[in-house]
Amino acid sequence: MQGTDFNIETVEFLDPSGKLKRPLPDALGGRDKLIHLYRIMVLTRVFDRAAINLQRTGALGTYPSNEGQEAIGAGVGLAMQDTDVLVPYYRDVATQIQRGTLLEEILVYWGGDERGMCFSNQAEDFPVSVPIATQCCHATGIAYAMKYRRQNRAVVTTCGDGATSKGDFYESINIAGAMKLPVVFVVNNNRWAISVPLEKQTAAKTIAQKAFAVGIDGIRVDGNDAIAVYQVVSEALEHARGQHRPSIVEALSYRLCDHTTADDASRYRDQKELDQARELEPLIRFKAYLQSEHQWSETEDEALYVDCDSQVKKAIDAYKATPDQQPGEFFNYMFAKPTANLEKQKKEYFAEVKRHG
Amino acid sequence: MQGTDFNIETVEFLDPSGKLKRPLPDALGGRDKLIHLYRIMVLTRVFDRAAINLQRTGALGTYPSNEGQEAIGAGVGLAMQDTDVLVPYYRDVATQIQRGTLLEEILVYWGGDERGMCFSNQAEDFPVSVPIATQCCHATGIAYAMKYRRQNRAVVTTCGDGATSKGDFYESINIAGAMKLPVVFVVNNNRWAISVPLEKQTAAKTIAQKAFAVGIDGIRVDGNDAIAVYQVVSEALEHARGQHRPSIVEALSYRLCDHTTADDASRYRDQKELDQARELEPLIRFKAYLQSEHQWSETEDEALYVDCDSQVKKAIDAYKATPDQQPGEFFNYMFAKPTANLEKQKKEYFAEVKRHG
Amino acid sequence: MAEWTLLEAVKQAFAWELGADENVVVLGEDVGVNGGVFRATDGLQETFGAERVVDTPLAESVIVGMAIGMAAQGLKPIVELQFMGFIYPAVDQIINHAARLRNRTRGRITCPMVIRAPFGGGIHAPEHHSESTEALFAHMPGLRVVIPSSPARAYGLLLAAIRDPDPVVFLEPKRVYRLGKQEVEDNGAALPLDSCFVLRDGIDVTLVSWGASIKETLEAAGKLSQIGVDAEVIDVATISPLDIETILDSVSRTGRCVIVHEAARSFGVGAEIAAQLAGEGITSLLAPVKRVTGFDTVMPLYRYEDQYMPGVNRIIDAVKESMEYR
Amino acid sequence: MAEWTLLEAVKQAFAWELGADENVVVLGEDVGVNGGVFRATDGLQETFGAERVVDTPLAESVIVGMAIGMAAQGLKPIVELQFMGFIYPAVDQIINHAARLRNRTRGRITCPMVIRAPFGGGIHAPEHHSESTEALFAHMPGLRVVIPSSPARAYGLLLAAIRDPDPVVFLEPKRVYRLGKQEVEDNGAALPLDSCFVLRDGIDVTLVSWGASIKETLEAAGKLSQIGVDAEVIDVATISPLDIETILDSVSRTGRCVIVHEAARSFGVGAEIAAQLAGEGITSLLAPVKRVTGFDTVMPLYRYEDQYMPGVNRIIDAVKESMEYR
Ligand SMILES: Cc1ncc(C[n+]2csc(CCOP(=O)(O)OP(=O)(O)O)c2C)c(N)n1
Ligand SMILES: Cc1ncc(C[n+]2csc(CCOP(=O)(O)OP(=O)(O)O)c2C)c(N)n1
Ligand SMILES: [Mg+2]
Ligand SMILES: [Mg+2]
């Protein structure tokens, strides 16, 4: 049997023009839920632009934008229950803000400060993971603990398309299948891993089909469609919680931005491809849908942007007002109780600070 | 789509009673080729028993038996061309002896001596790999070199069912697919990884379907049927050489032996399962086939065993007659030219030998 | 009091803590029905169930990575890696996550877990079954590295490791797994994870070692006493954080130090001890610090491994040289 | 003569050897069209083609493992790992195979390859982008570990590394990648892989360092000379095998030694140097060997990384302490 002998459909609700192709999922009935989804995307977009500006002016370190991928996090975050756990990667602002992570915390982290991962409103979600795909492994352990304790909870872990080439991704989906763990692997297939296009990453036609290697479910969804993402991840989470049936959700998107602020995608990527992708992006179609089906007005839209702007500004203020760490704070969190060795080195450090400021 | 929605057939030629279900492949026409296949299996079986005996009497270290899995190596070895390269694991005696590796070299290695991997008749094949699945990576690099040099060659690498859970296996099949490398991954699915049965290893119904995760071909073959293995691997190698089309060949077998001489499978394995598996083993059916279709007589069979016995005895003699390594020989192969540091340590070592013998 | 080998002591520590704390979970390849390839978990699955003594697929990276996730949820996973030579696929998870999770989240998420691996040569095992690369983990901030050398210390240190709120790499000297029994009280008492153990008092020279090499070091000390050299023997036990005070104190009395370890010499754990002697300890030194160690080569396959391992003779020679130094 | 930054020197060494030897192949994530995230391979794919400058999938273990297979076939692969923090998934392949293949096969199959990674902190990069774990690889028998600290040495040492018949871990101090240019002759001449470089002669104290820390070490030496302390500065360059003779020789003249490195102190490369001074070098020592290093903590995220890095002041203070020691 050849690797091309089967086809996986892509679940779609909203088409690029904002038309609904299938009945709205019950859970999204009512204007508020839909506006919530839209708001998350707009907030993420606005936050993203602000973060990039902060980076450009030297007020933030390297930052990985979410542009074009807001629908994934919007849908995932809404689909998750409070008691679920998120194990994110670095392009998950839209999910994280629905989980209680504060915008200023995200800024603090990319501003080069560990305190940004000490979420004040979220005890269990993991910090974003930089070493690619390693977080998938952690998700399986969290899921194991939930199952061990007979809890009706599940884990969502996320990664990029490039991450699916790594051993850790595979070992994680395999153990999740073998042990029937309540975990959903959401892959943001934005078609690029820095400069490497998906075609060089794998010969698999879809990421979803990687599920078959380990006997779990593989689902493809239009990642520019927040409704579809919500629906697919909701179902996946139900299967995970109720039946301990893990799955991969491949969300098709496109990285409209550079990889990070340290990257220049024009070095390796066609403008035409980018332009085409831009037409499919998630905010435009969602707005069009709200306008045509839910009486969303330009005034409301503008007000929303203004509101998000001011929320982001407040976050930036809070970020900038964050007091400095205590000197030598980095000694304090290596162990529950500092070792004698670290106490000694800390003294050394303070002696130096005293001598030279 | 669910992980169970498709079925991969198992290629079979010889059924367990020794009846041919499909026409013999052309390349195996003629009694000699068939007897060659049978001889390899018998030789491997005889060698195996002798090796286990050597281990029991303290003349050999821990040894991993090939019992019940001889047909895989018999078929793979015959399917390979001289110019191909083998990257084996530790259960590949039947393949290795067709590649020019000497029985005594195999003994020397398991006897705790690196010289056993310095094959005197085989320059390019890799030594057996103990760290599970790591060898799959090496195979991709060899295949890359062949393709880079426009050579009409291919690589076979082998591993067990347990190995397919490891990241290295997956990263290797994925890169082979993405780069279209001339490599065949042969998996000896003997259903156990030490004490862990396949069901605990993965939820995938077959190992072959792991190919779909990376867009390459996945083929299942009866690993107790040397003819089927030969045919499937021959075709896979042709695709690899000619079209740079990599594949996974899952060979269904059973580990009739303990994992190694250090293992006691009765601790974790049902006698009934073992008994059933024994009825499917490769030598019995091949002999029956030769008897019914190729006038193979008991006399010939006995003569063959006698002949293999004497070949193995010679190998054991050669093994036992292997002169000791020079003292401190282990210093000599760390670098092309020993470093000053190693020269110094070697002197230290010799000074000690001189003092204390 | 029970009489146990080191291996039995390991198992008994497991049994105690599995019984005492339902958050403790053991996982690894073949740890369940088979009881581990060395039988360190023999019978535990039967007693505590397959959810608490868990056979995993063959995949070291996710085994450790999974344990990290478990630990974050308040379980106390104990991972068995079958041999130290197979710890490397998990190094990324150990260094980049287990050792850092507390710091990365400023204490919000922690990682109480034990990563066990049998280590060292000398049991006539196949390739890749004889490594001693404790130095790799000792160098990594955020990890504890613990190595018992007797049944009692195995029991007490393993209990301490399981209860420790941070990740511990626990390396078991398999060469002495079954070498001799010792009376150990099965009372669930832990030993400290920040102290060396002085196994023998002496005034002439300080011998510092750990793991299986303690055996040869004690033997050498015994022989040396017959020729009038009175050696103090220190078992480092917790390699990291290193209890350098006990060593400095001893050398301040003896003036001489010989370090014995099986790992390759260069950049090994012995180097750190010698470096501290060259630093703070320098005024104590009456002779060059000696290191009796494995060579900077791969451990030879088993037939020739004895050529590699630091034996009693090499220790005695080094001590003699040290004593003769003026 | 061309004026190059260290980064340009790396690229030019590539260009030279890709031009000279068609067995040389460069592979890694983003090394092709993008020219590497630091642009060390900028333009090389255009010149030498996509078969020789190869973009790989995101999978460090198979990247190195693939290079091992290539090397066995007589290619000379140069692997780029994007940052040292991402070398760990490949540690298994490096330790268990690359470093051992020659020995395992008694010289039948060899492994001429270079594993490059930018390393060290100080560029305000995200988490996991600032590590200095050279000690891990230095401890591994069968590997060379090489660290250039100037454009000329980057050029000459990288050429030597590519031509070496055995595996070399080549760590590039990214903090000084673009810091200043140096005239380098683009003549394909390699530098030796077994020698320290004495960057400054001096009689009072020996400063030993490598990588980016050479910058602060030289600065400190300059300032010290203004207060009458004449420091010799040694760039170790090849960490393993360590050219200890040059260091011992220097300390035999100065009597004092301060070692500077960015990595965590305990069990770091500095420990081996200090240990050798505590051994063979002990008679030379007039003062305790000092180590000015990173602390035994994770490198803080970028806003606070300066608190961690050994700066000029710390070096000067250590030298002063050493000079004052009687
Ligand atoms: C193990 C590891 N290798 C390399 C990197 C450097 N790196 C950071 S992001 C990235 C590409 C990731 O691509 P993908 O998984 O598709 O996620 P995306 O950034 O596109 O969302 C790489 C190579 C890393 N962080 N970790
Ligand atoms: C990385 C690694 N982990 C663990 C081991 C110990 N070990 C040796 S063989 C084996 C089981 C392998 O099973 P499988 O791949 O099915 O091959 P089989 O032995 O059944 O032929 C294990 C766990 C190892 N050699 N390497
Ligand atoms: Mg991507
Ligand atoms: Mg098996």
CATH uppermost class of the largest domain in chain C:
Alpha Beta
Shape of chain C: globular
Report the mean per-residue pLDDT of chain A as an integer: 97
Radius of gyration of chain A, rounded? Answer: 21 Å
User: CATH superfamily of the largest domain in chain C, called what?
Assistant: Thiamin diphosphate (ThDP)-binding fold, Pyr/PP domains
Low-confidence stretches of chain C: none
Outline the structure in words.
The complex is a heterotetramer, with two copies of chain A (357 residues) and two copies of chain C (326 residues). Chain A has 357 residues and is α/β, with parallel strands linked by helices. Chain A folds into two domains: 10-325, Rossmann fold; 328-357, no CATH class. Helix content of chain A is 46%, strand content 10%. Chain A contains twelve helices and eight strands. In chain A, strand 7 (217-222), helix 8 and strand 8 form a beta-alpha-beta unit. In chain A, helix 1 crosses helix 3, helix 1 packs antiparallel against helix 10 and helix 1 packs across helix 11 (298-321). The longest helix of chain A has 26 residues, at 31-56. Chain A is globular, with a radius of gyration of 21 Å. With 326 residues, chain C is an alpha/beta fold. Chain C folds into two domains: 2-184, 3-Layer(aba) Sandwich (Rossmann fold), CATH 3.40.50.970; 197-324, Rossmann fold (3-Layer(aba) Sandwich), CATH 3.40.50.920. Helix content of chain C is 35%, strand content 20%. Chain C contains twelve helices and 14 strands. Chain C has helices spanning 6-20, 44-48, 60-72, 91-98, 101-104, 134-138, 151-163, 213-226, 244-254, 269-278, 305-308, 312-324; strands spanning 2-4, 24-28, 53-55, 76-80, 114-119, 144-146, 168-173, 182-184, 197-200, 205-209, 231-235, 238-240, 257-264, 290-294. Chain C has a seven-stranded mixed β-sheet, sandwiched between helices. In chain C, strand 2, helix 2 and strand 3 form a beta-alpha-beta unit. Chain C is globular, with a radius of gyration of 19 Å. Chain B binds chain C through residues 61-62, 109-114, 130-132, 162-163, 165-168, 193-196, 200-202, 262-263, 267-268, 325, 327-331, 334, 341-342, 345, 349, 352, 355-356, and chain C through 29-30, 32-35, 37, 55-62, 85-86, 88-89, 124-129, 265-266, 295-298, 300-305, 307-308, 313-314, 317. Bound molecules: thiamine diphosphate (2 copies) and magnesium ion (MG) (2 copies).
